[in-house]
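User: Okay, second chain of the day. Same drill as before: sequence in, structure tokens out.
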Amino acid sequence: MPTLLGFATGTLLSARLSPEAWRRLASGGLAGIAATGLVQALVQALGKAFVAHGHG
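Assistant: Same drill. Structure tokens below.
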């Protein structure tokens, strides 16, 4: 469901924003998704290392 809502929001915004504004917004969103993925991977790796060393 979140994917469908995101698609609908993107479709509405792309129709209302100028091409340049949409490009900036989309690029920022992709950078945000990449940063979130990196943080999640780091947290998961640190958590596994913590448990592997007998702390969890």
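The chain has one domain: 2-52.

User: Thanks, on to the next one.
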